[in-house]
From TrEMBL:
<dbReference type="InterPro" id="IPR044140">
    <property type="entry name" value="ProRS_anticodon_short"/>
</dbReference>
<dbReference type="InterPro" id="IPR006195">
    <property type="entry name" value="aa-tRNA-synth_II"/>
</dbReference>
<dbReference type="InterPro" id="IPR004154">
    <property type="entry name" value="Anticodon-bd"/>
</dbReference>
<dbReference type="InterPro" id="IPR045864">
    <property type="entry name" value="aa-tRNA-synth_II/BPL/LPL"/>
</dbReference>
<feature type="domain" description="Aminoacyl-transfer RNA synthetases class-II family profile">
    <location>
        <begin position="33"/>
        <end position="341"/>
    </location>
</feature>
<dbReference type="GO" id="GO:0005829">
    <property type="term" value="C:cytosol"/>
</dbReference>
<keyword id="KW-0648">Protein biosynthesis</keyword>
<keyword id="KW-0547">Nucleotide-binding</keyword>
<dbReference type="InterPro" id="IPR002314">
    <property type="entry name" value="aa-tRNA-synt_IIb"/>
</dbReference>
<dbReference type="Pfam" id="PF03129">
    <property type="entry name" value="HGTP_anticodon"/>
</dbReference>
<keyword id="KW-0963">Cytoplasm</keyword>
<dbReference type="InterPro" id="IPR036621">
    <property type="entry name" value="Anticodon-bd_dom_sf"/>
</dbReference>
<dbReference type="Pfam" id="PF00587">
    <property type="entry name" value="tRNA-synt_2b"/>
</dbReference>
<keyword id="KW-0436">Ligase</keyword>
<dbReference type="GO" id="GO:0004827">
    <property type="term" value="F:proline-tRNA ligase activity"/>
</dbReference>
<dbReference type="InterPro" id="IPR050062">
    <property type="entry name" value="Pro-tRNA_synthetase"/>
</dbReference>
<dbReference type="GO" id="GO:0006433">
    <property type="term" value="P:prolyl-tRNA aminoacylation"/>
</dbReference>
Length: 447
């Protein structure tokens, strides 16, 4: 993309309403625009990161054997009356009537709708296990929407639902989700720690939240510092194996890690004092096992091997896709701007032309742009006739992990400059080598 032709409405001033750094940078970098309280338009740069995050979620769901569907945002209240949640859900649910006077609502979550799909189409234990998921807009009429996309009213969520014959199988689905979430967040450059939590209006006994440690987090958390040494890495897991998933769950949940809702001071005090940590965290996901809470009242049953109809065991699993943008920025920035992890960056690298209009510099930038594009990479080429300082400040703000700087002086010596946004370190090297390095970083075969 050439910056001169892009739509990236960068703000010079720091918007007064933004209280935390991620919200400030998202507004300043022209990623989002507030439409009304807690409701945002996604401008090109923000939308691109949202899509990257979504792609990772889809890939990791596929790896775990989960199947994508898409359900509507508007639902009939009738299903929610069947589960008993229509009255319970309270003011967070946005309710409306259609022209026939029928009660409708904007989906805050979709346990009822997916249970209805299941009961209409699945009748035998042979069709299990089954996990369906979607990535869809949700609406919760939060009393205090704030911090930009972090606590929105309209927000983008991955919501998945497992259907299993037995409690044991459903607990495997729970463990499998935990494993797959660990991998998902790590690919986004995040450490998200599973912590024992409270199930709230979704219900159920077993639930873990995934928290990213950040001073601006809304939850108070208590944990054993050993937990931050754990990495999922690139281990190969057989997601169908109960033992393997269980082992990962045990590894990642055996140490003390709880949100304030479930915090137990006496238990916490058993952790050696030097390892006890109290901090703040951003909840980027939550997994639940709730058994037959929905299947029983809604009649979602299957015939078991003996032909008896039994209600299925279920759980649900959510990732705050839009919230993740804020969480990633909170975890990865400096005083100049965002520092995108390679896994989610909107463009793979920036190209800064120090002397736009200089034939040699222009030609070198065009050549870099063409080669990177041919490798399937997306560079952002700042081809505007701006001062170098303004171009650097812009690149630092939007946070692309790598920048290639091209100027007449370097070109005389046959080199361009490759700079890491994270470390600030620069290296002079011939353009072909810069391309090769970028290709390697992103796992693309070089020319
Ligand atoms: C699990 C999926 C559920 O709704 N039902 C379907 C279950 N869980 S949850 O914990 O309530 O939400 C899942 C994740 O969505 C994000 N989230 C939000 N993001 C932005 N603004 C909000 N107002 C908001 N509310 C929830 C969180 O990341 C949460 O973990």
């Amino acid at each position: 993309m050439r910056l001169s032709r892009y739509f990236m409405p960068v703000l010079k001033e720091t918007p007064a309403e933004a209280q935390i750094v991620s919200h400030r940078y998202m507004l300043r970098a022209g990623m989002i625009k507030q439409a009304s309280a807690g409701i945002y338009s996604w401008l090109p740069l923000g939308f691109k990161v949202l899509r990257k995050i979504e792609d990772i979620v889809h890939e990791e769901q596929a790896r775990a054997g989960h199947i994508a569907i898409q359900m509507p945002t508007l639902q009939s209240a009738d299903l929610w009356r069947e589960s008993g949640r229509y009255d319970d859900y309270g003011q967070e649910m946005l309710r409306m009537k259609d022209r026939h006077g029928r009660d409708m609502l904007f989906t805050p979550t979709a346990e009822e709708l997916v249970t209805d799909i299941f009961r209409s189409h699945v009748g035998s234990y042979k069709d299990l296990p089954l996990t369906l998921y979607q990535i869809q807009w949700k609406f919760r009429d939060e009393i205090r929407p704030r911090f930009g996309v972090m606590r929105g009213r309209e927000f983008y969520m991955k919501d998945g639902y497992n259907f299993d014959l037995t409690k044991e199988d459903a607990l495997h689905a729970y463990n499998r989700h935990l494993v797959s979430y660990l991998r998902t967040y790590e690919r986004m450059g995040l450490q998200a720690i599973p912590m024992r939590a409270d199930s709230g209006p979704i219900g159920g006994d077993d639930t873990h939240e995934f928290l990213v440690l950040a001073d601006t987090g809304e939850s108070e958390v208590f944990y054993d510092s050993e937990i931050t040494d754990l990495k999922f890495g690139d281990r190969e897991i057989d997601y169908d194996s109960h033992e393997q998933c269980q082992a990962v769950l045990e590894e990642f949940t055996s140490r003390y890690a709880r949100t304030d809702e479930t915090h137990d001071e006496a238990l916490f005090n058993e952790v050696p004092e030097e390892r006890r940590r109290t901090a703040r965290g951003i909840e980027v996901g939550q997994i639940f096992y709730f058994g037959t809470k929905y299947s029983e009242p809604m009649g979602a049953t299957v015939a078991d091997a003996d032909g008896n109809r039994v209600p299925v065991h279920m759980g649900s699993h959510g990732i705050g896709v839009s919230r993740l943008l804020g969480a990633i920025i909170e975890a990865s920035h400096d005083d100049k701007g965002i520092i995108w992890p390679e896994g989610v960056t909107p463009f793979h690298c920036g190209i800064v032309n120090l002397k736009q209009g200089d034939d040699e510099a222009d030609a070198a930038c065009e050549a870099l742009y063409a080669s990177l594009t041919a490798l399937g990479l997306e560079p952002l080429y700042d081809d505007r006739s701006e001062r170098a300082g303004a171009k650097f400040a812009g690149m630092d703000l939007i946070g692309l992990p790598w920048r290639i700087t091209v100027g007449p002086r370097g070109l005389k010596n046959g080199v361009v400059e490759l700079t890491s946004r994270r470390t600030g370190e620069s290296e002079e090297l011939p353009p072909e080598q810069a391309i090769e390095r970028i290709a390697q970083i992103y796992g693309r075969a070089s020319v």
